[in-house]
Amino acid sequence: MAVLLSTKPATMEMWRAALLAVDPGLEIRLFPDAGDPAAIEAAVVWTAHDMAELRRYPNLRLIVSMGAGVDHLLRPPGPPPGIPVARLVDRMLTTQMGEWVLLNVLRFHRQDLAYRAQQRDGVWEELSAPVTAATPVGFLGLGELGTHAAGLLRGLGFPVLGWSRRPKQVAGVESFHGAEGLAAMAARARMLVCLLPLTPETRGIIDARLLGLLPRGAFLINGARGGHVVDADLLAALESGQVAGAALDVFSPEPLPSAHPYWSHPRVVMTPHAASITIPESAAPQVVENLRRARSGQPLLNLVDFSAGY
Ligand code: OXD
User: Fold this and answer.
1) Residue 149: DSSP 8-state
2) For a substitution probing ligand 1, which of 276, 279, 287, 304 has the most ligand atoms within 8 Å of its CB?
3) Minimal CA–CA distance to 303: which of 81, 89, 44, 86?
4) Among 89, 121, 193, 230, which is most buried by a count of CB atoms within 10 Å?
5) What is the distance in A from the centroid of ligand 1 to the CA of 71?
6) At 254, phi and psi to the nearest 5?
7) How confident is the model over 39-75, as pLDDT tens digits?
8) Is 201 exposed, middle or buried, given 0-12, 13-18 or 19+ CB atoms closer than 10 A?
9) Cα 309 to middle of ligand 1, angstroms
10) How far are the Cα atoms of 6, 19, 66 from residue 35, in angstroms, in the given order?
11) Is ligand 1 within 6 A of the CB of residue 197?
12) Distance, CA 149 to ligand 1 centroid (Å)?
């Protein structure tokens, strides 16, 4: 039986090598060279793979999505019915996202946008001292990624607030949930960090209303999905000064069209969906373990909960 691998051509070989390093006995087929469809028992795929294509494999018993987010799996037609889908919950993905959040919280907290502009203009001027304990950071989403990043900020002395769909207690994080909780948290968050899954309920959650609830001059940091943000509303909030700056790693669509105003906005800091990049060597052991479990009928790790959308 074989594993079908389908990802960006540039990383296909790295994935193959990483999986073989964990289990040299694996037979791996690189899409589109799947060979006999009946031989495929698992598909390890990323967002570009057409879910309808996976219906060709009659003996498929496991799909692994090569990242943390699963919104691409929720779009029609979705994965073949009845086949379990696992996502990656990986220490290195979590670590990288924590670093990216930290980078941007500190960038804004330490007035880096203003100091860079001063350097460009040859201005020597000290700005007011930033007070960490008076800078609450609010997280949208307290899953693996949010909880980890929240812990890093707490360690630096930032008051940390967190909003999640369902009530959730995380040590050291003041928790909020539901529509009222969202408004209450936003009213205090000098920085708003989005690490939510993208679901029908969270699409467009960062709109004029939510941005308008933030303290004036707050910052937005989005490492989740572009679909969480209503771009026109964010641009208007940047224009009016309601939002002082935004760090964006994700966009809708991607790549962001070259004429989009974010590219040249002086208070938007962009990265090309690179906050957290899957490292095959780190992720391969859980893929192989899930394959072993699927073969022996044991419970799978990190199964996607399609009703919750993550
Ligand atoms: C992911 C991503 O979901 O890279 O892992 O966006």
Assistant:
1) H
2) 276
3) 86
4) 193
5) 10
6) -120, 140
7) 999 999 999 999 999 999 999 999 999 999 999 998 9
8) exposed
9) 14
10) 14, 19, 22
11) no
12) 16
